[in-house]
């Protein structure tokens, strides 16, 4: 096994990332050492690069969380992950590891907690596999945050609907796929150029969020369909007020529940008999480990095996390997729509 490896290292807040050598770690008892073949980028990556993000990383830091690669070595207590040579996708963030750079994604070898490692089917490329971890963790945590178990299976007779505002993003597309799997009638918003994709992933109706009358369009469709809409996921900023305007007319006497993935701004709008909850995984390590096991070993593993869950959104490949990660983060910061930037390593 290699004793050192290349890493895209952040020497201090603000960057830039620079490729350098790091010692290759041994996995802890519940960890998996993975050779990284592809990384996917998320907005929090460039935010952490530019500004820092609690918990404060250990500098020099290694950022990133979304990887696909090959298992190199299992920790002594790991029994739920296939052995060396197996293809996997993994959530390899240092966020829950006190910023430890051994756990960041942007390097050739990294550590991941075993509960957040999922076998990757042979018919999916490493680039496709890398898009899942953060998006799946965020989309699935949204349901449990508002009290919806991941084994829920509504039927049409239940007439349960959900609104997903911002459905063409990485998290949004997985929110749509998971909502479909839960049995919801799915209403979603996206730019018109992404409507076909969002419908293909499972939305029953998709609306242009820029339409001046989008709120009334959605209310009218819900009432025409005769379903109960009192659940929503705000995937993007600026979605809360129109979401509440819709729920005010569709929730009836039920307590509405809105899960909000961006940080809730101070003085955010509210609605009577409506819970508005920030979407965040459990901070207690034992509870979080159990939750991630259910998400990655249960839901994602089952969905990938059956083919019910597919890579989404569209992938934008950026070259350069680890040397190209810094520029790829700048492209993401500059704005992309309906795509996930992936860098092969």
TrEMBL record:
Alphabetical UniProt keywords: Oxidoreductase
Database matches in Pfam families: ADH_N, ADH_zinc_N
Region: Disordered, residue numbers: 1-28
SMART domains listed in its UniProt record: PKS_ER
Domain Enoyl reductase (ER): start-end pairs: 14-343
InterPro entries: ADH-like_C (IPR013149), ADH-like_N (IPR013154), ER (IPR020843), GroES-like_sf (IPR011032), NAD(P)-bd_dom_sf (IPR036291), Trans-enoyl_RdTase-like (IPR047122)
GO terms, molecular function: oxidoreductase activity, acting on NAD(P)H
Similarity comment: family membership: Belongs to the zinc-containing alcohol dehydrogenase family.
Protein name per its UniProtKB record: Zinc-binding dehydrogenase domain-containing protein
Source organism: Trichoderma breve
Taxonomic lineage: Eukaryota, Fungi, Dikarya, Ascomycota, Pezizomycotina
């Amino acid at each position: 096994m290699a004793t050192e490896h290349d890493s895209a290292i952040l020497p201090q807040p603000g960057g830039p990332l620079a490729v350098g050598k790091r010692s290759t770690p041994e996995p802890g008892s519940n960890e998996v050492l993975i050779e990284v073949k592809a990384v996917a980028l998320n907005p929090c990556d460039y935010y952490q690069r530019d500004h820092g993000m609690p918990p404060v990383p250990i500098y020099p830091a290694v950022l990133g969380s979304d990887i696909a690669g090959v298992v190199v070595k299992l920790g002594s207590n790991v029994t739920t992950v296939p052995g060396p040579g197996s293809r996997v996708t993994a959530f390899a963030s240092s966020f829950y590891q006190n910023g430890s750079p051994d756990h960041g994604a942007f390097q050739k070898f990294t550590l991941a907690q075993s509960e957040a490692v999922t076998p990757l089917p042979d018919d999916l490329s490493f680039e496709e596999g890398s898009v899942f971890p953060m998006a799946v963790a965020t989309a699935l945590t949204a349901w449990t945050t508002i009290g919806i178990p991941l084994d829920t299976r509504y039927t049409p007779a239940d007439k349960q609907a959900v609104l997903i505002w911002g459905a063409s993003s990485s998290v949004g597309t997985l929110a749509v796929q998971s909502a479909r799997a839960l049995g919801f009638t799915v209403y979603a918003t996206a730019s018109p150029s992404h409507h076909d994709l969002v419908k293909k992933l499972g939305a029953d109706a998709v609306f242009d969020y820029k339409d001046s009358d989008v709120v009334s369009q959605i209310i009218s469709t819900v009432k025409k369909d005769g379903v109960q809409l009192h659940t929503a996921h705000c995937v993007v900023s600026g979605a809360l007020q129109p979401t509440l305007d819709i729920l005010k007319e569709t929730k009836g006497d039920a307590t509405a529940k809105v899960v909000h993935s961006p940080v809730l701004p101070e003085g955010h709008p509210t609605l009577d008999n409506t819970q508005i909850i920030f979407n965040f995984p459990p901070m207690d390590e034992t509870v979080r480990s159990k939750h991630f096991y259910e998400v990655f070993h249960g839901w994602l593993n089952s969905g990938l095996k059956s083919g019910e869950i597919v890579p989404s959104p569209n992938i934008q490949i950026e070259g350069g390997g680890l040397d190209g990660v810094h520029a790829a983060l700048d492209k993401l910061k500059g704005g992309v729509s309906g795509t996930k930037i992936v860098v092969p390593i």
